[in-house]
Amino acid sequence: MRVSEERLSAASFEDLALPLFDQLYNFAHWLTQDKAEAEDLVQETYAKALGGFSSFQTGTNFRAWMYRILRNSFLSSRTGLKTMVVLDEESSESLPTENATPEVLFLEQVSREMVQEALEGLPVQFREILLLCEVEEMSYQEISETLAIPMGTVMSRLYRARQALRAALRAKMGGQHGM
Amino acid sequence: MACEQWRGDLDRYLDGELAAAESAALAAHLRTCAACAAEVLERVQLKRSIQMAGTRYKASAELRNKITKSVAAKSKSGIARQWRLVFVPALALVVAALVLTVYVGQQRTARQRVYGELVDLHVATLASSTPVDVVSSDRHTVKPWFQGRIPFTFNLPELAGSDFTLVGGRVAYLEQIPSAHLIYQIRKHFISVFILPDRAAEIKSLPSGTADRLSFRMETWTQNGLRYFVVGDTSEQDMRALSKLLRDAG
After folding, report:
1. What ipTM describes this predicted complex?
2. Which residues of B touch A18 (CB under 8 A)?
3. Mutation choice for A interface testing from B10, B26, B46, B128 by most A CBs within 10 A
4. H/E run at residue B91
C-alpha cells in the first residue's frame, strides 16, 4: 500500500482509510479487550489520521501509518499504559533453534476458542505482533514500521511470541486433560 | 547438524521473508527431510490457527456509519460547495465499495482456508512414512482401487511420453467430502491432485485458475461436475502440463 504522489492528490483520505475499517476495529478490540474502548480507539484513530493526513508522507506505507496511529493512541490510553509490559532486552542476534519435537497432533486438537483465550493471555506486545503477522499478513518491514522497532527485533519478538503461544496452548491442553 | 542450520530459517520461510534462492534451497531440503517437513507442518498449523482465531471482532453498523460520515464530512468541508451534489452518489459508491470489500474479503478468506487445507494435506502426506495407500504407477491399478472408497469415478491420463509418473493414491477428506488424492512425480518434485464432487459451497465458489500459497502452486478447475485441485512446488510449466493431461483425460 505504498502511495505515490499522484495517487495521493487524487485519492481522498476515505478511499485509503475506509477499507481498513474492519481490520482496524478487530485489531483495536484485541488490544483493548473491550468493545466500548475499541470503538473509541477506532474513532480516535480516524480523527487523528484525518487531521494529520497532510503530514502523511507519500511513498510510505499508509496501512502501517494507520496502525501506528491506532497503536500509539492505545499506548497513551489508560488501558494501554496499564497493559504494556516491559519486555526483556531483545537481541537481534541469532535466534535459538528448537529441538523440541513438532506438535502437529497436539495442535490439531486445539480449538479456535482455546487459541483465542491463549492470545488474550499473552502480553500485549506478543499478541499484537502475532495479529499483525498472521491476521493482517504484514511483511516484517511493515511490522517494523507499525511498531517502530528494528527488523531484528521484529524477528526475535515474533519468535518469542510464537513460543509463548505454544506454551500457553500446551498449558491449556494439559489443564484440560487434568494433567 | 544440517537440519539445525535450517531450523532457524523456517519461520522466515513460512512468513515469506526469505530471498528466492534461500527459499528454494530450503524447499529442496524439506523434500528430503521428514523431520524438517514435520516442523514446517507444525508451524503452518500454528499460523493458521492464529489466523482463524485472530479474525474475531466485528464492528457495529453504528460505528461504521459514524466513521464513514465523519470522514466524508470532514474531507468535504475543505472542498467547494458543489461537492454536495456528488456527495450522495459518492457515499453510495463508498458503501458499495465497502460491501464489495467485505464480500471479496470473505471470498478471499474462504479461498485461503481451502487452499491452506490443500497445502496442509499435500505437505502432511509427503511427510508421512506411508504417503499413499495404493502404490502403483499404473493408472489401471490406481483407478479401480478407488471403487467403493469414493462415491464417484474419474479418468486418469496416459502418462507415456510425458515426464510424469504416478506414485499412487489415497482417500483424503476435503470439506468433509471424500476425495481422490493422487500423487504424481516429475523429476524430484511431487504433485498432489485432489478430485472431488464440486458440491461443497465453499469449494464451488472458488474460481478456476491458478494461485500461490506459501510458495506452493495451485491450479483448479471444474469438469464434469468434479473439482480438480493440483498442488505442488514445481514449475508453472509442469503444473500446466499435468493439468492439461488431466483435463484431456477427464
Report:
1. 0.85
2. 67-68, 71, 94, 97-98
3. B46
4. helix B83-127
Q: What is the pLDDT along chain B (250 residues), one digit of tens a residue?
A: 478 888 889 999 999 999 888 888 998 998 898 888 888 888 988 998 999 899 999 999 999 999 998 888 765 554 544 455 556 667 777 777 777 777 666 666 777 778 888 888 888 888 777 778 887 778 888 888 888 888 888 888 888 888 888 888 999 888 888 899 999 988 878 899 999 988 877 777 777 777 776 678 888 999 888 999 999 988 888 888 999 999 988 7
CB B202 within 8 A of CB B113: yes
> Which has the closest alpha carbon to A49: A67, A31, A75?
A67
Residues 5-24 of B with CB under 8 A from A: 7-8, 11-12, 15-17
Query: How far is it, in rounded angstroms, from Cα B114 to Cα B120?
Result: 10
Grid cell at residue B224: 464434469
Residue A79 buriedness (CB in 10 A; 0-12 / 13-18 / 19+): middle
Residue A18: how many CB atoms within 10 A of its CB?
Answer: 21
Which pLDDT value is given to residue A9? Answer: 38
Separation CA B161–CA B179 (nearest Å): 27
The residues, any chain, with a CB within 8 Å of residue B41's CB and separated by 6 or more, are A102, A104, B120, B123, B124, B127
Three-state secondary structure readout of chain A: CECCHHHHHHCCHHHHHHHHHHHHHHHHHHHHCCHHHHHHHHHHHHHHHHHCHHHCCCCCEHHHHHHHHHHHHHHHCHHHHHHCCCCCCCCCCCCCCCCCCCCHHHHHCCCHHHHHHHHHHCCHHHHHHHHHHHHCCCCHHHHHHHHCCCHHHHHHHHHHHHHHHHHHHHHHHHHHCCC
